[in-house]
Specification:
By secondary structure, the chain is α+β, with helices and mostly antiparallel strands. It is 21% helix and 22% strand. This is Pin family phage protein.
Length: 204
């Protein structure tokens, strides 16, 4: 069991302490005792308030199974108090992480950048991990078709997938093959010169 060395002073039943009302109206409250003698009840009240708070903080630390020791080691006390906040409030590891897209950071919604192009080049989407997804149209042709991505992949295009387009009710069906050829382009060929296609490209 964790140890809490900080104990409240004068908290027992019938403790000799000034009442709260008298304490709040005490002339010496703003300035402290500057002359004369303070009554024992007033001194006990002055000691009870900070010692109670200290005991409460110490018990908060101890409730997290960490020691709160009155040994002058302030650094350890602060460290244990900080750790007890995380433990007692159930914050988990996320409480120790910053917002961002680097290692051990948590992305917020601004990290999910999406740009939609008005031109036929297509759409692209950056994920916080750095993965880039692009998709768009492939022109109809009887031969190889080179398609330029909306934006260049910063490092590499990993994979391209494509499917033949279809017009409802036309009955025209076909197949298409595609491959990446650079950071900026892909190549494809369809079985029908009348049908274009759509692609999905993934890279980083």
């Amino acid at each position: 069991m964790a140890t809490n060395d900080f104990k409240p002073f004068a908290t027992g039943a019938g403790a000799n302490v000034t009442s709260q009302a008298d304490w709040e109206s005490l002339p010496a409250l703003p300035t402290g005792f500057t002359s004369g003698k303070a009554s024992s009840a007033q001194v006990n009240k002055a000691l009870r308030q900070p010692s109670t708070i200290a005991a409460m903080v110490g018990q908060f630390i101890a409730n997290a199974n960490l020691d709160a020791l009155d040994n002058g080691d302030l650094d350890t006390l602060v460290e244990n108090f900080t750790n007890s906040l995380i433990a007692n409030l159930g914050l988990g590891t996320a409480a120790n992480r910053d917002v961002g897209t680097e290692a051990n950071q948590i992305p917020d919604m601004s990290s999910f950048l999406t740009n939609i192009k008005a031109s036929p080049t297509g759409l692209y989407h950056y994920l916080p991990s750095g993965l880039l997804i692009q998709f768009g149209n492939i022109a109809a042709s009887s031969g190889d078709v080179t398609t330029t991505f909306p934006v260049a992949f910063p490092n590499a295009c990993l994979k391209v997938m494509a499917t033949q387009a279809y017009s409802a009710g036309s009955g025209n069906i076909g197949y298409i093959a595609a491959a990446q050829i650079s950071k900026t382009q892909m190549i494809s060929r369809g079985s029908s010169s009348q049908l274009g296609g759509v692609y999905l490209a993934v890279g980083f």
